[in-house]
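Lab intake sheet, docking and co-folding queue.

SAMPLE TYPE: protein with bound small molecule
LIGAND NAME: zinc ion
LIGAND FORMAT: SMILES
REQUESTED OUTPUT: full 3D complex as structure tokens
PRIORITY: normal
SUBMITTED BY: R.K., bench team

The fields below were copied directly from the construct record.
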Amino acid sequence: MMADVRLIPCLSDNYAVLVHKDGETILVDAPEAGPIKAALEETGWTLTSVLVTHHHSDHVQAIGAVKGSATVIGPEGEADRIKGLDRTVADGEEFKLGPVRIRAISTPGHTSGPLCYYLPEERIAFTADTLFAMGCGRLFEGDAATMWRSLQTLRAALPDDTDIYCGHEYTLTNARYAHETLPDDVAIAERLEVVREARERKEPTVPTTMAAEKATNPFLRADDPTVAAALGMEGAEPAEVFARLRKGRDGFS
Ligand SMILES: [Zn+2]
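RESULT FIELD (auto-filled):
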């Protein structure tokens, strides 16, 4: 039996997620109390754990309001910047919450010590503001080389059939940027249309899959010669290609 997973849109473009298996209900990030409480009420699930990905307020600000008697778990590397943690976990740590097995993966770049969480038996991963559908997070507390290493770590760690839940609905802008950057890429062009239609229907584009990201997320393809060539950077180091991709996205809207 796989876990039940429920995506909860919060604020203008954030996502929280509930994972439920047997008596365990895990909330991943707490952007806004109202929608999270409504989802708990609707499902009848009682929150047992809160997993925090990183210290940004739009991921932690509702922890106190929703936690009840749940245990709050977050990254050791940002523990001094996250209020109300009951327990910290570090890179590579494997732990169980009820029947759910979880592996913490450190992915610095967006912030200095964030964690992604991989649930191998459930075939899902929470990549917060590190890996987005067709994009990646902004570099607030790390340089491009650091973020590129983090994305390579995720690319190696997460199997193709993993459902990827990211922290924001940024996919349409990411897809438009990917298409502008790699106009000859058919898979990106096709996915842009799928994403556009989903957003016109106001449907989420999350979760995505690791297979889709490996194929159509330019930020996971900084070592792909096609991407370097499209940027006029043949032979450049992947970290430099990545830096150029990220810089272009910063100015894109
Ligand atoms: Zn963030």
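REVIEWER NOTE: The chain has two domains: 4-166, 173-205+213-250.
SIGN-OFF: pending second check by T.M.
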